[in-house]
Specification:
The protein is an all-alpha fold and about 210 residues long. It has 7 helices and no strands. The two termini are about 25 Å apart.
Length: about 210
């Protein structure tokens, strides 16, 4: 079983990913809501997304150092294994998520921001899935990895955006609430989580047999 430090870092990484993806969704939902009082909430969502992504990236680095220290494996030996490539995918994805959240400050086109967000989400969730149970076998199943990544991404986005929008309603009390735009995203998240959960359970049962 993982040490308390390792378990805490893993939870911090997942919380950071939830903040990054949930903040990214909140930015887009708030951008569709008219009103002079929405700008402050949108800025908070941007800070949440950037802070979450950077927190997750920092936690991943500390976790890597901790694992190298406790396992006694050399940095080069660990890096050139599949673990290094998967870790790199996740780290690159988190940094791309942070970059996509600052699109407006960097004067990037909207299309470039969406591309950065999609690539960052795919790399971060895919890398995390491959570092988890989906990548424990000698030849990881592609469909299982995709299902796990979709499940993680949908759950993290729904949780992060839901908590943030709830705080917006309590703290800012905007005249026009952005929650009416939240329902389609929430339903899409449920639609992604349910099949991927079923897929993971089916694969798990097959593997046990």
């Amino acid at each position: 079983s993982p040490s308390p430090l390792e378990a805490g870092l893993r939870w911090l990484l997942l919380l950071g990913l939830s903040g990054a993806l949930g903040g990214a969704l909140a930015i887009r939902l708030l951008g569709r809501t008219a009103g002079s009082d929405i700008g402050r909430a949108e800025l908070r969502a941007q800070r949440l997304s950037v802070g979450g992504a950077l927190t997750g990236a920092a936690a991943a680095v500390i976790l890597l150092v901790s694992q190298i220290t406790t396992s006694g494996t050399g940095v080069v030996a660990l890096w050139w294994r599949s673990y290094g490539a998967r870790w790199g995918l996740r780290e690159a994805g988190l940094l791309l998520l942070a970059l996509s959240a600052t699109r407006r400050a960097r004067a990037l086109p909207a299309g470039a921001g969406r591309l950065l967000l999609a690539a960052g989400a795919a790399l971060a969730c895919g890398g995390t899935a491959l570092l988890g149970h989906s990548g424990t076998t000698a030849a990881p199943s592609l469909t299982r990895a995709i299902a796990s990544a979709a499940h993680l991404g949908a759950a993290a986005t729904r949780a992060g955006s839901g908590v943030f929008l709830a705080l917006v309603l309590v703290l800012d009390r905007p005249r026009r609430a952005p929650t009416r735009h939240y329902a389609p995203g929430a339903l899409a998240g449920v639609g992604a989580v349910a099949p991927s959960s079923l897929r993971s359970r089916v694969v798990h049962v097959v593997d046990v047999r």
